[in-house]
Specification:
Blueprint (H helix, E strand, L loop, with lengths): L6 E5 L3 E4 L4 E2 L25 E9 L2 E8 L9 E7 L12 H14 L2 E5 L11 H18 L5 H6 E11 L1 H13 L9 E7 L10 H5 L8 H11 L29 E6 L5 H13 L4 E6 L10 H6 L1 H20 L1
Parallel strand pairs: 6-7, 6-8, 8-9, 9-10, 10-11
Antiparallel strand pairs: 1-2, 2-3, 4-5, 5-7
Family: Belongs to the 'GDXG' lipolytic enzyme family.
GO molecular function: hydrolase activity
Protein name: Carboxylesterase 15
Length: 333
């Protein structure tokens, strides 16, 4: 007799949760896009101007480092961009091709060392697990800056006085929270120079107008928002939780937080643009240093969709504009 596992929850194409608590993240969506979820092996040699390696900080924390190729005669140090990947806190990995193709571009264009954190995933590891991962990565960078830990690429090339947080989608939520936590500790000799939330997953319990009216996109649907957050938020929480609604009444008042300058990146056709703008307005009201970069005509996480970037000239142009805007922000700070 064959015992079939019982599915108790499912996010189409991405994830299945079974009654025994196990989770299957095998891609079951359109096969032509599966390559974007495939892992890319690290390579110490430079390919198209970027080398990568995976570093195990401890048994619970792994990082992927992207090092851009530099002129041996150039002794200037490179800023660090610490990346927190998206996926609704439930899916994706730092070595997925969709991130590899974006963050090799960013490392090369911005002449920056990008470090992507392999985040713990829900429902096995609910929030605040990925926040702990991201903050631990920041503290590890501080320990390298202090000489207590060692990583050759960073010791040789990194400017620890210019460290930036960047995050896609739910990773944008982590940028805010980790920056807020960093404001309560002494990171010296490291300096957190800025935060870059890209299309952050800021929502609230009551649906916004854009959630009801904007078209869904391949990388964000209402079903994904609802189910991923039900699996990721602490049990009993609503979308008004401070992680998903940092501008809401359950969160610490923004004017009490010590935050670095922020570049908030928004897509005009994002289904959650209204709540992202509520966050921007609340940050401005709290007199925080926040710039806005809007990608016209684009939907959520458009720049990660390699097929669209390759096939659609507008998507390609807006991806380049986004990278250029991030580069300019990093260069300013």
């Amino acid at each position: 007799m064959v015992c079939r596992k019982v599915i108790v929850d499912e996010v189409s194409g991405w994830l299945r949760v079974f009654a025994d608590g196990s989770v299957d993240r095998t891609w079951t969506g359109p096969p032509q896009v599966q390559f974007m979820t495939e892992p890319v092996a690290p390579h110490d040699e430079f390919i198209d101007g970027v080398a990568t390696r995976d570093v195990y900080v401890n048994e619970n924390l792994r990082l992927r480092i992207y090092l851009p190729e530099t002129n041996p005669e150039d002794s200037s140090k490179l800023p660090i961009i610490l990346h927190l990947h998206g996926g609704g806190f439930c899916i994706s990995q730092a070595d997925w091709y969709m991130y590899y193709q974006m963050y090799t571009k960013l490392a090369r264009s911005a002449k920056a060392i990008c470090i992507s954190v392999y985040l713990s995933l829900a429902p096995e590891h609910r929030l605040p697990a990925p926040i702990i991962d991201g903050f631990s990565a920041l503290l590890w960078l501080r320990s390298v800056a202090q000489g207590e830990s060692y990583e050759q690429w960073l010791v040789s090339h990194a400017d620890f006085n210019r460290v930036f947080l960047i995050g896609d989608s739910s990773g944008g939520n982590l940028v805010h929270e980790i920056a807020a936590r960093a404001g309560k500790v002494d990171l010296s000799p490291l300096r957190l120079a800025g935060g870059i939330p890209i299309h952050p997953g800021f929502v609230r319990a009551v649906r916004s107008r854009s959630e009801l009216e904007q078209p869904e996109s391949p990388l964000l649907t209402l079903d994904m928002v609802d189910k991923f957050l039900s699996l990721a938020l602490p049990v009993g929480s609503t979308k008004d939780h401070p992680i998903t609604c940092p501008m809401g009444p359950e969160a610490s008042p923004l004017d009490t937080l010590k935050l670095p300058p922020f570049l908030l990146c928004i897509a005009e056709m994002d289904m959650i643009i209204d709540t992202e703008m509520e966050y921007y307005d609340a940050m401005k009201k709290a007199k925080k240093d926040v710039e806005l970069l809007i990608s016209p005509g684009m939907s959520h996480s458009f720049y990660l969709n390699k097929i669209a970037v390759d096939m659609d000239p507008q998507t390609a142009a807006q991806t380049e504009a986004l990278i250029s805007g991030i580069k300019d922000f990093v260069n300013k700070h």
